[in-house]
Amino acid sequence: MATVINMPKLGFDMAEGTLIRWVKAQDETVQKGEVLAEIETDKATVEVESQESGVVRMHLVAENSVVPVGSPIAILGTADEAIDVEALVGRSGAARPAAAKPASPEAETVSLRGRAETPAAAAATGLPAGPHALEDEGDGKLPAGLRATPVARRLARERGLDLKSLSGSGPQGRILKSDVEAALTAPAPAPAFQAGRPAAATERVQLSRLRAIIGRRMTASKQSLPHFYLTADLEAGPLMALRADLNSRLPQDQQFSVNDFLVKSAALALHEFPNLNASLDGEQIVRHGQINIGVAVAMDQGLLTVVARDADQKPLRTLSAELRQMVARAREGRVRPADIEGSTFTVSNLGMFQLDQFTAIINPPEAAILAVGSVRQEPVVVDGQITIGQRMRVTLSADHRVTDGAEAARWLQVYRSYVEHPVHLLV
User: Fold this and answer.
1) Which residues contact 352 (CB under 8 A, 6 or more apart)?
2) Residues 118 and 159 in one domain
3) In 114-167, which residue ranges form alpha helices assigned H by DSSP?
4) Are residues 154 and 65 in the same domain?
C-alpha cells in the first residue's frame, strides 16, 4: 500500500526545511533505515532515513524547495500498484498541506518523473512547484562539477563574486549561502600604503539562517528564563594524567578528548540531581528518564549541538567514539536527526580557545548548561607547599524556576568528585 512521506520535524522549533538533495531517485528501491533525502534546517544539513521499505514512486517536491513541516514530499509504494496522488495526499480536503515554496524566487520549474513542468502545470497535478533540476537561475548553467544552492548563486551574482573561487561546505562540495557570506566578509589582503587613501566603506551583511535562529532562541532564553550562575575551580591534573596514559595505548583515531571525560562526569552527576536534567512544562517540572548530554560544536555558520544519548550508561570508550562520529558528521554537513534531537543538559567547552572562564546561555527547553574553560597551569598550595598544578574553571548556568543555588552547588560538588577522581568514570 502506498505511503506518503512528510517533511519531518527535526527540532522542537523547526517550522520548515529545505530539501536540498534526493538521495533515492524516483522508481528506486529504498530499505528501512537507508538515507532518503538531505534536508537543510536552521541548524544543519540532516540526512533523513526512510522509516519503511518500498519503491520511491514519486517525488512531490524538487530539490532546493522550502517545505513546511508535515507537508508531503514523496510517495513510497510497490513497483506496480496504481496510485491516486490527489486522494493520497488529501489535496481536496481540509487537511490539505501547505505547498512548498522554491528556495530561489527565480526558480520556475519542477522536475517530476523526468519532465520539466511550469508552476501552472505543477499546480494542475496538485504538486508544489520547485526549482529545475539543472539549477539554472536565468544566468546560465553552472560549470561542470560546481554545485551551489540557488540562494548562494543569487547572492554571489548580486555581489559580483566568482563562485569558482570558493570551496563549498555543503554535501558533495555544494556551495551554501554561508560560504558566499564568509567570502564576502573575509578581510582582503592589505594593499601597499597610499597616502590620503579614504577609509573603507561600512558594510551590511545579512544574518545567516543559523545565526538568525540562534539569535531568536538565545534572546527568548535570556528574557524568559531567570538564569543564575555558579563557578567552580577544579583540579584537572588527575584527569589529564589518566587521559594521557589511556591515549598512549590507543590508535590516534580512537583517542579520548578532554570533553569525553567532562560529558561522562556531567551525566553521572545528574543521576543524583534530576531537577537539573529537567524541563519546565507550564506548572510542572518534567524530570527526564534519559540523560542525553548535548555537546556544543563550533561551526563556521554558528554553534550546533550534537547529543550523546544515555551518556550515563555507556562505557567511556563507546561514548567517545559516538561523539567523535557525530562531530565529524556535523562538520561535514551530514548530521542525522538523532544526532541533534533530545538533549536534556548541555556541555559547552571553549577550552581549546585558551579561555579561562565564561558563562553560557541555557538551551531551551533544558534547565541548565555547563560552560568549561581551559586547563591551565598555575601555582597551587598542596600540604602547605606551593607547587605547579593544573586547574580548570567550570560555570553552571541554571533556570531558577526549576532549581536553586544550593541544589546546583551540590551538583557541582558531585561533578567535581568525578572530574578530580576520573578513574571512577572507567568503572
Assistant:
1) 374
2) no
3) 119-124, 150-159
4) no
Q: What is the CA radius of gyration of the chain?
A: 25
- Which region among 52-61, 280-289, 300-309 has the lowest average model confidence (pLDDT)? 300-309
* Same-domain pairing of 326 and 387: yes
In a domain? residue 142: no
Residue 79 makes CB contacts below 8 A (sequence gap 6+) with 27, 55
- Distances in Å between the alpha carbon of 303 and those of 14, 43, 139, 183, 212? 16, 8, 34, 19, 12
Percentage of the residues of the chain whose pLDDT score is greater than 70: 81
Task: Give the residue, 140 or 52, on which the prediction is more confident.
Answer: 52
Residue 365 preceded by cis peptide, ω within 30: yes
> For the residues 120-133, what does the mean pLDDT come to?
35
pLDDT of 284-304, one tens digit each? 999 999 999 999 888 766 678
Domain count, the chain: 3
pLDDT at 254: 95
How far is 98 from 15, CA to CA, in rounded Å? Answer: 12
* CATH number of the domain that residue 90 is part of: 2.40.50.100
pLDDT in tens, 67-80: 898 899 999 988 88
Which amino acids are annotated catalytic? 400
Which structural domain range is residue 166 located in?
150-185
